[in-house]
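Quick review question:
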């Protein structure tokens, strides 16, 4: 059983940056593909980015390409999401998941003001 806890969300002005963390416990995530999703008010949860178990491969939704970067530190059992050039439309609850969605965190709120 993997327990995921996201942190690092908050309020930031447009153009600013935030770094989200997803700390795992209960089991190692080193063999899992990890991902970030987000859900804005009144909208469905949507894919943001994913990273391979080794960290060598990642993919991004078009709307975050060039602005967001996913990374992982398997020694720390943690995945990160560096978010730069934030826009008001990035406002959402951001969720971390593991193993293709078998495990989810509780989410962290990101609010970008204009």
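Suggested answer, residue by residue:
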């Amino acid at each position: 059983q993997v327990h995921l806890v996201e942190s690092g969300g908050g309020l930031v002005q447009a153009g600013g940056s935030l770094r989200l963390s997803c700390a795992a416990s209960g089991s190692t995530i080193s063999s899992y593909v990890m991902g970030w999703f987000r859900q804005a008010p009144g909208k469905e949860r949507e894919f943001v980015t994913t990273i391979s178990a080794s960290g060598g491969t990642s993919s991004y939704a078009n709307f975050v390409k060039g602005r967001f970067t996913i990374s992982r530190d398997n020694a720390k059992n943690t995945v990160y999401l560096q978010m730069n050039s934030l826009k008001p439309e990035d406002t959402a609850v951001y969720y971390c998941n593991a193993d293709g969605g078998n495990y989810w965190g509780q989410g962290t709120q990101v609010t970008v003001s204009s």
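Why it works: Residues 18 and 34 are 19 Å apart (CA to CA). The longest strand covers residues 18-25.
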